[in-house]
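Design a sequence for this backbone.
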């Protein structure tokens, strides 16, 4: 019975040969110091500025005329970008996702995006876009229940062979809880959490009086950001990325998400602009 309950409290994760291989490799980095050193040298090289953050999909900003937080942040970078490249989501496509539209994939911004060799990614359906087209994708992604993740990461630049432009290459990925490759990062070294962080000022809370311990929130938390104590769900504040999926999923409205100050938006934008120039 206990093992069955533990399985019920696990998220639904991407299940493809490539993803499963990556999951096992990341697990090995925790047990093999040599492998961990090699992985960190490649993924998080010293001196390379990297950062990432999911943007909560369900925080309304009263001071911004009731706009939704993701629109304010992503609109800023899209309007600033000199080049915009849209791609289908490779994770949802490979995982044959039945829950979300795989056409609402990654938005790549900056000079690095202009140098991506699209001939090497035929299934990604890559196409350069106008600001208006990119903003429309943001609207559709939000309506589809996808969480935007901002990223300025060395791994992205290496994957698309634009390391020479890594300081001019930024992503807005629209992630689902059932297929996102980000779900695998919790199996790897803790250094990941030093780079990809929850937006400052965002807080997720669970009301124990409303929580019934049904476990629905665990199914959609890809960050290992929840724990169960005495039959009630609780936020693991060390792991929670504040994406808001648990709040959307809870059938009892036991989860709430808030931001303490709207100036946190400016702080987030400044964090990225100190590391990447997409103009």
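Sequence:
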């Amino acid at each position: 019975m206990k093992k069955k309950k533990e399985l019920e409290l696990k998220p639904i994760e991407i299940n493809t040969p490539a993803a499963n291989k990556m999951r096992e490799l990341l697990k090995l980095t925790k047990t093999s110091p040599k492998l961990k050193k090699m992985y960190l040298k490649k993924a998080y090289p010293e001196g390379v500025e990297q950062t990432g953050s999911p943007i909560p999909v369900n925080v309304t900003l009263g001071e911004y005329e009731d706009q939704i937080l993701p629109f304010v942040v992503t609109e800023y970078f899209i309007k600033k970008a000199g080049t915009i490249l849209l791609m289908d989501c490779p994770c949802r496509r490979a995982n044959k996702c039945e829950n979300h539209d795989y056409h609402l994939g990654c938005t790549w911004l900056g000079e690095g995006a202009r140098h991506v060799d699209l001939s090497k990614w035929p299934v990604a359906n890559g196409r350069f876009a106008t600001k208006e087209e990119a903003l429309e994708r943001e609207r559709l992604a939000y309506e589809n229940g996808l969480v935007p993740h901002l990223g300025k990461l060395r791994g992205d630049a290496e994957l698309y062979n634009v390391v020479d432009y890594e300081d001019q290459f930024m992503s807005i990925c629209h992630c689902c809880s059932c297929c996102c490759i980000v779900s695998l990062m919790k199996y790897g070294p803790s250094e990941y959490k030093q780079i990809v962080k929850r937006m400052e000022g965002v807080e997720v809370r669970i009301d124990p009086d409303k929580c019934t311990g049904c476990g629905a929130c665990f199914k959609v938390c890809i960050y290992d950001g929840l724990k169960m104590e005495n039959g009630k769900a609780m936020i693991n504040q060390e792991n929670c990325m504040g994406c808001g999926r648990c709040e959307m999923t809870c059938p009892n409205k036991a989860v709430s998400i808030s931001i303490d100050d709207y100036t946190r938006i400016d702080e987030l934008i400044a964090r990225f602009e100190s590391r990447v120039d997409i103009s």
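Residues 17-31 form the longest helix (15 residues).
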